[in-house]
Task: structure prediction
Amino acid sequence: MSEFSLTEINERIARESAFVDDLKKALGQVIVGQEDLINRILIGLLANGHILLEGVPGLAKTLIVNTLAQLINTKFQRIQFTPDMLPADLLGTLIYNQKSSNFEIRKGPLFANIILADEINRSPAKVQSALLEAMQERQITIGDVTYKLDAPFLVLATQNPIDQEGTYPLPEAQVDRFMLKLKVDYPNIKDERGILKRMAITQQNNAVTSVIDIDQILKAQNVINDIYVDEKVEDYVLDLVFATRNPEKYNLSDLENLIEYGASPRATINLILAAKARAFLQHRGYITPEDIRYVGWDVLRHRIILTYEAEAEELTSEDILQRLFDSIEIP
Result:
């Protein structure tokens, strides 16, 4: 445990996380429904982790991200990925200035705080890989000069699961760099009625004003590090991750021929970080097994590589995760 007692941590988290309610309320004035999606995007923001959003068009993914950027007064860039893009279209390039006879840096759209990489799988591997250094190292190299990106730096990438023609699947190395993979589903009929009433109006003004500043987000990211994690919760996380690698040791021998590769150590780290962020959203100074289960699907679903046998049986990583969460004992 840290230098603070659990009571002190709880009090500190309750105090530092007060702004979360204002942020959610402001988002709710623009976004109808999608509360679960909003919570998970906030988890990614607070845990300083990138997010992969998968869902059909028209589910307010862009609107949520754009609104969030305005509410925390950060620089937002939406990048539409296309097959003819080049890495320089993201990073920037060197431009020759004839007047000064020197090369000058022209920075690309990645020099922002919140990036929406729309339909990221529309671009080929050389463009996708251009994101890797920025996502992992929080820096961009143009020519022989390396630039540190301003914090916070969050990439939210979308991909359409139903349209695979003319797309380039993301390599496992890049997918693993996303803390969370979120499945965005259709709203229920009540929420869609609310969308109808609010959005079916021409020339409406959706302008929003910031309710918090960047410093509060950066401070929250630091405070989250002090949230208490019990050793039994750590054991639960390790059991979940290691069960994807050696299922037979956890009485899950039926999964042995279905999992080609289990979750990487990034999964272990991100399960704890995301659970801490979820506890912060709920104004708690400690995480519970329920926090792990809440974020577990989003952290693990893109980190389990299935065998051909599993694909032949039309199984998905979701089916594997269901077995894991049903079987691994909760502390």
Q: What stands out?
A: The longest strand covers residues 92-97.
